[in-house]
Write a structure and sequence with these properties.
Four copies of one chain form a homotetramer. The first copy, chain A, is of the alpha/beta class. The first copy, chain A, has twelve helices and 14 strands.
């Protein structure tokens, strides 16, 4: 994918796509990360934004982003309408606001025929999520959900190795994600910390929605099979708050493969080490975001191997499409977001051109993945409330 | 402890103690490890053994160990009697046989007034374990159980830091131990692999008894508080066998502190990385046996620190007693076993001399720790069988 | 620097600067890296390019980069003239061609009043380098040289810690950079590999110019003092070629501080691990590009500490200006290039606005650093030729 | 070697050998390490000692070691004579005193027909070293020199891989050893620190003799070829002292293979990380004592591999002889010393029994390796004094 025009499915684009962003103003974080990925991919210009619903913040933030004055909005509905009316209106919108607004914003832009790139978790309840699934199916719009870790080159390589049988039959899968930031009492933390623990904004879970959904998606993505059941135990171990800040879960992947998910945002001394371990009858894989270029492949009764991004490293074609720099020149999270925005651009261009993309060529997370994540959050919260009973978490 | 005679509680010994070993003959493993630890400590001579119940193996093994011909036995009862009758008879016996023989062997030697050093798990059922506890209390004999990982210098340091409050109030505790060796089909593996999966020899669990007990002890030892409850899920993921080879557990430590234990002996590409993570409100600790000299101390919102064994590393007095070589000269499992046998020698000398050792000065695992381990195994097996219900696992 | 307009020296920019690129067409590598950095910084639009001197490659590459047709050039002189004549002409040019063309290209654009961003080594001989220094001093143009490793947040942090005295008086400094790619015979490698070993293109050295200059700059940058003398030993250990592929050097930093530089591009199994170790009387620092987020600070006789980018990590203000994402969200080489292009944008905006930037606020490498690098290459080659004699390598 | 009696060359021993130790009393360090290795091997009883030349220290130390009263000496000459006269006299002596006494002590015991195990550096000048070589050749006594790092299982594995051609033709070899302890001013450090910097005791070098000799031996041992030439630069960077505490060297191994040796004992934050890197045309090896169980094998343009001690790890027969515990049960320096003392026991038993051991089966360092080390120290000191000229360092 790094070389545009390399084959019929990846024709040379004629122009950069135009991206609008909702959320991301001063004091927020993830909106900027979206914009960095879009820029890095060289497939997007960020041209419009409702970066905040407070007009003065929206204006100041828009100027900081170097948006044109007439494309700085504070009302996303107005933005959807006015952008749709412009000849040079946005092709897609990135939704980077608190969770409970995702649904309404997505609907507003979908109704204008604008493709959607939404942050996760997709919504705060399953009906909203399913509504977005239905709308996407009816409109045929592209709807990506930014589980960005799935766009690391070495995560793609891991998925390809599982699919190719390098591990043999899968036996167990463990995903963990520990952070420390929520040890800061909410009153001393920023606004971003406060809305994340407010049930009115995030629904039935804090940490499970915020980082548990990443674990849920990453395990399923690499294993190529969904989580079907779970039992969960929620804890509030850090400063007092109305929702959990820690959760331990037992899960089953399709085919009754057991696994665990362990998450906490009050784990002192930890930062962003989402870590995946997949064990098969012949070998295991380990990947940790804090060393994103390394994929540990450990065959039974043989020396361990360390695969890295780049030529001569034994990596497969899916990962190779994400190689921007030679082996050893370290890539990291910005590059992963760039990869994701590149894939989304390809999908959106193809849709606009009426071209079909063969199954499996693009692997960005979709609205369906987003809905599965919401289902996961709800099931986990319900299981914990019921004392840790096993609950189904499929969409069936 | 490295300097004998350093104070009143550690007087200069007048002689090496005499150790007998039951088990450990050709084809076995752990008996040799015991003997290496005893030798390394310079507090013991290994002088007698019933290294096998098969006379020819016992004889060949005894010669290999350079035992005197008249102190090579194949019947441990005969050994107990004859050694007790000698003026230069053994001071203690190391029991390194399969689990279901530990109780009878311990009883035989205790009845002769010989101190006991038993491998874990202590017994295959709780009544046997409690019987040993009772006998120890009645006789006052020293009864050590070789949870040797607790004798690593940096594990002692971890325990001391928890006790001193360096982590603040404890919040969560995770212990995992993954190995790969049981991926070899039992019929192709050695005898040591075969008895370990035989319920008649090991009781209700394979992996939970073999390595789960290590996790159970290590977490409780470092945290200074027992596991009070658990819920467990057993799996047999590798080659077919009558017992579990993998288990995931949720636990509670005294004070309702939550944690997890994850164990597997069919985890391809893993070896002996028992790993402990203790999180408190102020900081966390991490230790992994495969890097035994490093203790990671990670305060909230500060740089992580790496403590190492030796002077100038900020370690406390308990760990310092186990420093045999200057910082950076790597010590490992042999040294840990040496530490354990050194502590046991001190305890046995004190008992024989009628000296009391102040509370907390020695920290070797006792018969009570062994009984708690058996309780843990039984509770885990019962919980798993009942679908993962919470069960008490104290001795109360 | 991440927050535009944060103080008087970093006013909010009114527009993105316009960047032209010379070199970087299909088959080349570093030009794309420049462009990624420029885009990621959100301070630049890449609007023009002479990406190749071969018209058809220039055209195809320009389209791939999504340049406007009328701003795709194959002759850099034409580009300099036509861009200078446009109202919306480029503000700066990035020179990413083989070494022997840097001087002429820089002159052509400087003559049009266009600011310069040149790759390293600056030129293939000292007179050319000094000519550029003189021209820069005469014109006052911004002239940055892309020693991009100096723009990693943790390298800035290292420099700040040395300056603040955290290490005490410096005692020794070691820099190494090992790569493996030149083990591929030149005839089987790409064009980029072939010109790098051609004395007509690169001057008196291959590896010393290509990666030795990075070591030379990084050590001096972090220590805050130049290399004054060196003795070098060149080797050609890999496939036959007219220049060295390996060099070992002893150096002196200002103040007679000894150090070494070790470089090789035929070191099997190595990639991009440029590694710096600075030892002072009180502590040492270690940084390695393959783990760019970690700065190891190791005080004498205390636990080692690991500093990381982000809040709560004890990092200073210079590094903090380069923090784009919270601690633990890994940044890497793309982000470093983004940092460098951000600093260059600030410098160029200030020059254009006639604003003075206080000494020390910006730390991007300048034409003087570039000239020092050329001097270093020449001195190393001469020393090696003369059997390893000590030679001065200052510009005095 | 772990299984005695495994073949004709390793017959089952009939008894433990008897070891005497000179040096090692209270306040010293390395003598205790010798004794730990001897004990761990189960091939030796430590039965006699002149642990100090000060009678009261000798007596206290001897009791601490649990030596019999009549075998505690303060005069090594008396010890040599009286032990030689006993029916149960020592078989070998371990010389663990300051350097300048090694020669006289070795001579005293060789004259009594006692085998020698000497610490390094062998002597303080070449004539003394060559005298010991000559005496060994005349007497046929076993004379081991305790370069113990060469007895790590993974170092043996490295040597075997080089010999087998796994790296292809060797191209460059780098050994470094950094420690921090000599940052403590000598007056504040122990006696062991003071004699090491006294030219009257150690000859022309401090650090080069103390740890440089380890680097010199390790590189030559693994590469299977001697260092033939060197140029050295000595520095005294730490507290004032009459000898160097830091040295950088360029070397040549037989066949004109270039390399470097970098050593310092005033490198803040470092401990015992002697690190070896061997690069060949096809692959490289890296080993570091602070992770002694890991051997990094990195083929060109393939994933890196991590070999570990133990079955199923792809290790060869030489290393396998040193496997005492299953893969993953960490072994370290005590085990390496145990390995070395085991090999020495085999050699001494064979000599006493008149059995020849086939070439290459035992690989313990000999008096010739010791003499090469002394030559290395002298050549390095002379080269540095002469401004870094190249000097031969063979015994030819």
């Amino acid at each position: 994918m790094t070389q545009h025009g390399q084959d019929e499915h990846f024709p040379q684009p004629e122009r950069r796509l135009r991206l609008g962003v909702v959320g991301g103003g001063q004091g927020s974080f993830i909106g900027k990360v979206h914009a960095r990925g879009a820029r890095l991919s060289n497939r997007w210009d960020v041209v419009a934004g409702a970066l905040s619903s407070r007009p003065e913040v929206a204006r100041a933030s828009g100027r900081e982003w170097l948006l044109a004055e007439d494309r700085i909005y504070s009302d996303y509905r107005e933005m959807a309408e006015r952008e749709a009316a412009r000849a040079d209106g946005i092709d897609a919108v990135a939704i980077t606001t608190p969770n409970n607004s995702h649904h309404a914003i997505a609907v507003a832009f979908m109704e204008q025929g604008i493709d959607i790139i939404s942050d996760k978790p997709l919504t705060t309840n399953l009906p909203d999520a399913l509504d977005l699934v239905r709308r996407q199916q009816e409109t045929g719009l592209v709807f990506g959900v930014t589980y960005a870790y799935a766009a690391y080159a070495m995560v793609r390589q891991a998925r390809e190795m599982v699919r190719s049988g390098a591990l043999g039959a899968l036996q167990q899968v463990h995903v963990e994600y520990f952070q420390e930031w929520a040890l800061t009492p909410p009153k001393d933390a920023g606004a971003g910390a406060q809305w994340r623990i407010d049930p009115a904004v995030v629904g039935p879970a804090f940490t499970t929605g915020d980082i548990g959904t990443h674990c849920h998606h990453l395990g399923a993505f690499v294993c190529g099979r969904p989580v079907t059941r779970l039992r969960a135990e929620f804890h509030t171990l850090g400063p007092d708050k109305p929702l959990e800040d820690t959760a331990f879960m037992h899960v089953r992947y399709e085919g009754d493969i057991p696994g665990t998910i362990m998450i906490s945002q009050v784990a002192a001394g930890t930062h962003c080490g989402i870590r995946l371990r997949v064990f098969g009858e012949k070998a295991s894989l380990e990947w940790n975001q804090e060393e994103p270029e390394l994929l540990h492949f450990r065959p039974f009764a043989e020396p361990a191997r360390i695969l890295t991004r780049g030529e001569g490293s034994g990596i497969g074609i899916h990962a190779a499409r994400f190689v921007h720099m030679p082996r050893g020149h370290p890539e990291a999270l910005s590059d992963a977001w760039g990869n994701l925005y590149e894939e989304l651009a390809i999908a959106i261009e193809a849709r606009r051109a009426g071209r079909a993309i063969p199954e499996g060529l693009l692997e960005y997370p979709t609205v369906l993945d987003g809905a599965l994540g919401v289902r996961f959050v709800e099931a986990a919260a319900a299981s914990s409330k019921a004392g840790g009973v096993w609950l189904d978490c499929t969409l069936a």
